[in-house]
Design brief:
This protein is mainly α and 397 residues long. The protein has helices at 3-25, 31-38, 42-70, 72-90, 96-110, 114-124, 127-158, 161-182, 195-203, 206-237, 241-269, 273-290, 294-322, 327-355, 358-396. Helix 10 runs antiparallel to helix 13.
Amino acid sequence: MDDKKRRFTAIILGLMIFLSNGDNYASATLISNIAHDLGLTISAASISITAYMLGYGLFTLVFGPLGDKYGKVRIVLIASIGTAIFSILGSIAFNLTSLVTFRLINGMFGSGTFPVTIALVGEMYGDKDRHKAIAGVMSMGLLGSATATIIGGSVAYFASWRMVYLVYGIGELILALIMVKTLERDKGVRAHLEFGKSYGVALSNFKFMRLAGLLFLMGFAVFGTFTYAGISLMDKTGLSILVVGFLLAGYGVGTVFGGRLVAKVKMKLGRAFLLFSGFIGAGALLLIESTTSVGLLILGLFILGIAFVFIQSTIVSTLQAMIPTMKGTVMSIASFNLFVGAAVGTSVNAKILKVASMNRVYVTAALLLFIIGLLSSVYLTHFEAAERQSAKEKLYA
């Protein structure tokens, strides 16, 4: 593949991740409208978001090995077409059962777009350009997250929540058809599916799974809270879904900004980096809970986005260092923990909101985020010490 075609392929794949991530994050602005339109409680409407995240988390374990067996381009195409179709179907849901079913399957297919795409881009480029190419595609995903609440809030304000899913679905379908016509098919690198062998190595590594488990708590604390942030901000400020969509974009912008800062801040703070990240993330959640000032709300959401990227990216990179020869498997396990945690968090918070106010959700999430920062700092310190000791032993062996 020549350089021009490589760049074109990376751009198309990046745009698909942009839309796929947006399809997920836009739900934070839609839950109130969905509940009103279908005659549901907020708790019932949130099941559709739980379903999407659960489908995404569970099936991220499946698509990696499928890509190795049948070729990554083929799997990305199937996943892209599937997520497009079921996003469109979500726009015509007529009751809770149909909406949950469409969103569940949408999430299942959506989970095949991100990890397999990152693996595909990694194979397309050599060592010199690989990191830059992957970072570029991932930044498109973060940008999709950053703009999703603006797109979702704006479209829902002027049209309806149904139009949001329809717009994303049509966009994904157009891109998928372009990909069918333009992407060069690759061959599988494994003769057999090896789910047990691939995941057995990781699951039997206690230190690896202990650290990966923190991503479950991250999904619970951050995504499980973000699901209800839109309706919470509308209730406490009296602002429209259009304006709240712009406010929530502060979180997405924070993730983009944090992604660019993470290396510099980590180098400067050293061992205190993760503890600092947990501290500012917890503080951001408490700020969002305690204020009605638009400026402070944007600031809190922005800092929360930074804290999330700081912790999540550091944990993922450390997990990859623990099992360096199985990066695809590591990404699948990381995504599984993050999104299943998000699904559980969304479900648990729905139950909390039935008997308490949103402030309990924010305070619980803040406490969890601080604990995650503390534990990840301890685990990372132990891992780095073990790595240094191992390097010394090899040097003097």
